[in-house]
C-alpha cells in the first residue's frame, strides 16, 4: 500500500477530499515534431493550431502594461490594439475523462494572451497572462495558422511538447482541509518521518483537475466572477521544463473553472 493510500485508510473522512487529476508530463520530441505524427489531434502543449473553419482566431483587446513601454502611445480614448492569442494546451477528453465539459464536446483548447494583465479580475489581484478555455468537438476543427501576436513576452511562448498523461487521485494542501483532518494528516506523516505537504499532499507539475498549491499565499478562495460559485482547479501551468515557460516569478499559474458552468470566465492565481 502506498503512503497516500495508507493515509486515506488511516484518517476517517479524508477519502471524500480525493479528487481525480491528470499529470501531463510534457516533453519535447527530439525529432522536432512533438506528438505522434500519425495523430495530429493528440493532446499537447503548444504546437500547431486547429480551429473551426471560417471562424476568426481569438484575439485579446485588453490593456497590456508592457506594450505601453515599448510601442507608440495611443490617445487615452483609443481602444487597445488586438493581440492574437497563443495555443497553450490541447486536451482530448480521453486523456482527462474526469474534467467537466459541455455536452457534445470532446476537446479542450486552452489559449492565452502572451502578455501580462493587471485589470482582468476585478478586485482580486493578478498580474500575468489572460487565459481562455474553448470546449470544442475535434470533428469540427481543421489545421489553422494563427496570426502572430502583436506583442508577446518570450516567457509566455510555449515550446511545443507532447504529453504522457498519468491519471491519479489527488489530495489537497493542508489549508483546504478542515482543522481536525489537517491535524490528523500531519500526525500521520510525522509518524512516517515525512511531511504531508511535501510528500503526500497535492501532486506537482502540469496538472488537470485535482487540487492547486497554496505554497506562496496560503488559501485564497477563487469565486466565479459571473455567478459567485466557488471555483474548482482545472489546470496548473508549471514554469521551466520542456515547455520552457515562466509564470509568476518562475512559479505556477492555476486556472480555475466554474462548477456551475465551465463556460463562465476562468479564475486565475499565481503561486
Counting DSSP E segments of at least 2 residues, the number of strands comes to 15
Radius of gyration over C-alpha positions, nearest whole angstrom: 20 Å
Q: How large a portion of the residues is in β-strands, by DSSP E?
A: 15-25%
Strand order of the largest sheet: 11-1-12-13-14-15
Low-pLDDT sequence parts? none
Share of helix, binned: 10-25%
What string, H for helix and E for strand, traces the elements in order? Answer: HEEEEHEEEEEEEHHEEEE
List the total number of helices.
Answer: 4
Largest sheet: 6 strands, antiparallel
Which whole number gives the mean pLDDT?
90
Count up the domains: 1
Structural class: alpha+beta
CA-CA gap between termini? 32 Å
Shape: globular
Layout of strands and helices, then pairs:
Blueprint lengths: L2 H8 L8 E5 L20 E2 L3 E4 L6 E2 L6 H4 L12 E2 L1 E7 L14 E6 L18 E6 L4 E4 L16 E2 L3 E5 L8 H14 L3 H5 L6 E3 L22 E7 L13 E6 L9 E4 L1
Antiparallel strand pairs: 1-11, 1-12, 2-6, 2-10, 3-9, 4-5, 6-7, 7-8, 12-13, 13-14, 14-15
Amino acid at each position: 500500500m502506498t503512503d497516500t493510500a495508507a493515509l486515506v485508510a488511516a484518517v476517517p473522512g479524508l477519502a471524500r477530499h480525493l479528487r481525480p487529476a491528470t499529470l501531463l508530463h510534457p516533453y519535447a520530441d527530439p525529432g522536432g515534431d512533438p506528438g505522434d505524427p500519425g495523430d495530429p489531434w493528440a493532446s499537447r502543449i503548444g504546437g500547431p493550431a486547429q480551429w473551426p473553419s471560417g471562424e476568426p482566431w481569438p484575439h485579446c483587446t485588453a490593456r497590456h502594461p508592457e506594450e505601453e513601454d515599448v510601442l507608440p502611445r495611443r490617445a487615452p480614448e483609443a481602444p487597445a490594439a488586438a493581440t492574437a492569442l497563443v495555443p497553450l494546451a490541447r486536451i482530448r477528453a480521453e486523456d482527462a475523462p474526469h474534467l467537466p465539459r459541455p455536452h457534445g464536446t470532446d476537446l479542450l483548447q486552452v489559449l492565452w494572451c502572451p502578455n501580462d494583465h493587471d485589470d482582468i479580475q476585478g478586485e482580486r489581484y493578478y498580474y500575468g497572462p489572460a487565459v481562455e478555455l474553448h470546449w470544442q468537438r475535434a470533428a469540427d476543427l481543421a489545421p489553422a495558422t494563427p496570426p502572430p501576436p502583436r506583442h508577446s513576452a518570450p516567457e509566455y511562448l510555449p515550446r511545443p511538447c507532447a504529453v504522457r498523461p498519468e491519471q491519479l487521485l489527488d489530495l489537497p494542501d493542508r489549508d483546504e482541509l478542515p482543522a481536525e483532518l489537517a491535524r490528523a494528516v500531519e500526525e500521520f506523516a510525522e509518524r512516517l518521518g515525512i511531511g504531508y505537504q511535501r510528500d503526500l499532499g497535492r501532486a506537482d507539475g502540469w496538472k488537470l483537475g485535482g487540487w492547486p498549491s497554496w505554497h506562496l499565499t496560503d488559501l485564497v478562495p477563487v469565486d466565479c466572477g459571473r455567478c459567485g460559485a466557488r471555483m474548482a482547479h482545472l489546470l496548473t501551468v508549471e514554469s521551466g521544463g520542456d515547455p520552457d515557460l515562466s509564470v509568476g516569478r518562475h512559479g505556477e499559474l492555476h486556472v480555475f473553472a466554474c462548477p456551475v458552468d465551465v463556460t463562465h470566465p476562468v479564475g486565475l492565481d499565481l503561486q
